[in-house]
Amino acid sequence: MKDEPDKKQEPGDLRVRTKQFALRIVRLYSALPSSVVAQVLGKQLLRSGTSVGAHFREATRSRSDAEFISKVEGALQELDETVYWLELLAEGEVINSTRLGDLMEEADQLIAILVTCVRNAKSRRE
Asked: Which of 32, 40, 93, 97 has the most C-beta neighbours closer than 10 Å?
């Protein structure tokens, strides 16, 4: 804990990484076409994609492992939903799927990391 303030500034830190993910979602939403379909899907994406970091930030302030697990699982649900909206944007040909590749990869990596966080927290409780 002695290095905690500095740790929050590291690029690999999940607080920073989930916030960067949210900012990428915001930029994607801003670049979407103005069609009704793009805007409806985009608003869903914007809501879920920006919620990931908020849930994770709440998790870092948890008072117990149970609360931490609950908050991280909330972030996982939002990530899964975000992937769904990204898939619909790509498969519905609203946006070229190649433009979404890096964002989908980051979502998959964040899912893997957060699943590991939950598993580790659950094993601490046992």
From this structure: 32
Count: domains in the chain: 1
Global pTM exceeds 0.90: no
pLDDT in tens, 18-67: 999 999 999 999 999 999 999 999 999 999 999 999 999 999 999 999 99
Six token digits for residue 112: 């893997």
The reply to whether 29 falls in a domain is no
- CATH of residue 70's domain is 1.20.1440.60
Alpha-carbon distance values, 114 to 1, 34, 72, 125 (Å): 21, 33, 7, 17
Tell me, yes or no, whether 53 lies in a domain: yes
Label each residue of 19-69 as H, E or C: HHHHHHHHHHHHHCCCCHHHHHHHHHHHHHHHHHHHHHHHHHCCCCHHHHH
